[in-house]
Amino acid sequence: MPDIFQSALSRLEEASKHCQIDPETLQRLRHPMAIFQVSVPVRMDDGSLKIFKGYRVRHNDVLGPTKGGLRYHPQVDLGEVKSLAFWMTCKCAAVGIPFGGAKGGITVDPKNLSKLELERLSRGFIQQLAGFIGPDTDIPAPDVYTNPTIMGWMVDEYSKIHHQKLPAVITGKPVPLGGSLGREEATGRGAYHCIKQLEKIRDWSPSEIRVAIQGFGNAGQHVASLLHRDGYRIVAISDSHGAAYRESGLEIPRIIEEKNRTRSLSGVYCECSVSTCSPCENEGTRRITNSELLELDVDVLIPAALENQLTVENADRIKAPVIVEVANGPTQPEADQILNSKGTLIVPDILANAGGVTVSYFEWLQNRSGDRWSLDEVRDRLFISMSAAFKAIYSRMNGGEMTFRTAAYVHALERIDAAVDSQGTYSYFSH
Ligand code: NAD
Predict the structure, then answer these.
(1) 20-36, pLDDT tens digit by residue?
(2) Which of 112, 171, 273, 363 is the most exposed place for a label (fewest CB within 10 A)?
(3) What angle do CA 189, 414, 35 make, to 5 degrees?
(4) Pocket test for ligand 1, best of 239, 272, 307 (most atoms within 8 A of CB)
(5) What is the 371 CA–ligand 1 centroid distance (Å)?
(6) pTM attached to this predicted model
(7) How far does residue 318's CA lie from ligand 1's centre (Å)?
(8) What is the mean pLDDT of residues 263-285?
(9) 32-166 under CATH 3.10.129.10, yes or no
(10) pLDDT (tens digit, 9 = 90+) per residue, 26-74?
């Protein structure tokens, strides 16, 4: 497996062939500005002590305070966090959000912890990070297996440490603690706006479009629900336990209801899987594997789980002509080449999942101003922002001169380069 951070950086090299970027900008982007690694001791319910490894990487802050989620997952390591932080820098620049990029995480399987252990771990992580993050420096948010409940514990801990209310330090909080209406749905809704743009360009009739979605968490559920509402046929969905397939289309609202009903049992994570919970066992529904889901003959494939799902091993067998990357980094660069040569259109992650950071920015603005926006206002602004970013990046493909992904990176790099240039580069000082 190639080094994930080097692999992420290869997008820079490709994009820089298509634009005039100062070599110093590229030099800076190849190195995260700061890396913080911590050990978090947690008193477990049985009285024993466990130590968990945590990371926070600030990749680049030339465009503003750094921003990015916190992930709880057994596979979290420094290489992954560095890559995710790099993608955040590019994403914020691509969609014009005045933030830089960061990311963090803990190497843990959170489903093995009780709710109280999870709270102790989350508060312990913030005790370690308290000097590193801040409303004007670095602003965390939820990511895989973290959610508003966890963000609520974290912002409470941070405020206690600093003896003042500082809600703007973390976004994706529960609404009563200063969270924004519309933040939970924002990533899925942003991806939905991208698909609606494609619907216009490709003249799609939703009922004829079959969609498969890998990952049925926050992002996957919301995009599924909005597409289902518009009449799209969601034929397959999956989670970490497996996938469900139904040729006539799955009943998305019922499956979401069942997932949420079982979540209330454990408080944080749902206990049922889309591949086994009762509404999925409707007539005509069958269980398939996650890899079978990726290779289905569908019109749109939406990876919405983890990185490196589309690889050199399976790229040849991917049949969907359109891929919308709701997950961060689901496609390896080598797989990209195979998919591009088949004519697959890939809406890249740094655009497709930017709805989350966009509404996180709205939340931060509300926290800073003391204002509260209505759900309609948040949704309207998200629509305007995502549609504008989609159109600007799509038009830069120049009818196929570069891929959608390269166009997004070119768009992002030019913004970053303009800011680096304003700070002063070699050419600036040598004249
Ligand atoms: P989540 O924790 O809410 O859901 C993750 C989902 O992925 C769950 O359904 C889980 O069962 C599934 N999953 C985990 N391992 C899997 C596997 N091996 N195969 C198939 N499914 C698997 O996380 P989320 O917030 O929905 O994030 C999903 C992706 O979207 C991640 O790549 C994340 O970085 C990206 N993303 C999320 C946000 C956000 O605001 N939440 C924003 C931008 C990007």
Answers:
(1) 999 999 999 999 999 99
(2) 112
(3) 75
(4) 239
(5) 30
(6) 0.95
(7) 20
(8) 68
(9) no
(10) 999 999 999 999 999 999 999 999 999 999 999 999 999 999 999 999 9
Residue 267 has pLDDT above 60, yes or no: no
Tell me the domain boundaries of the chain: 1-31+402-431, 32-166, 186-352
Where is average pLDDT lowest: 184-188, 262-266, 272-276?
262-266
Rounded Cα distance between 99 and 91, Å, is 9
Q: Do domains 32-166 and 186-352 have the same CATH topology?
A: yes
**Span 273-300, mean pLDDT?**
85
214 lines ligand 1 (CB under 6 A): yes
Instruction: Locate the ligand 1 atom nearest the alpha carbon of residue 216 and give its number.
Output: 9
Cα–Cα distance, 68 to 130 (Å, whole number):
15
Instruction: Label residue 19 by pLDDT band (50, 70, 90).
Output: very high
